[in-house]
Amino acid sequence: MARAALGWGVRDLAKEAGVSPDTISRLERGEEILPRTLTAIRATLESAGVEFFEDDRGDGVIKLRDRQE
C-alpha cells in the first residue's frame, strides 16, 4: 500500500531500496524476507514521505507526510 501511495511500481521501489524486484514481490505476497532487507525497504519508503503506525486495533496504517515539511 505504501508503494502505491507514492505512485511507485515494484521496480521503482526495488531500485530506490537497492533490492531486486523479486524481493519486493515476495514481500507484497507476505513471504518472509531478511530483517535487514525489510529495514532497507521501510527506510526508503519513510525517506520518500511514508509514515507507518498502528491503529487502535493494531492494524498497520500508512499516511504520506506533507511534502512541504
Mean pLDDT: 87
Structural class assignment: alpha+beta
Measured by DSSP, the beta-strand proportion falls in 5-15%
Q: How does the overall form come out from the CA principal axes?
A: globular
Oligomer: single chain
Structural notes for this entry:
The protein is of the alpha+beta class and 69 residues long. It has helices at residues 2-6, 10-17, 21-28, 35-47, and strands spanning 50-54, 60-64. It has a two-stranded antiparallel ribbon with strand order 1-2. A hairpin with a 5-residue loop joins strand 1 and strand 2 (60-64). Helix 2 (10-17) packs across helix 3 and helix 2 (10-17) packs across helix 4. The longest helix is centred in the middle third of the chain and has 13 residues, at 35-47. It starts with a helix and ends in a 5-residue tail after the last strand. The model has no long low-confidence stretch (mean pLDDT 87).
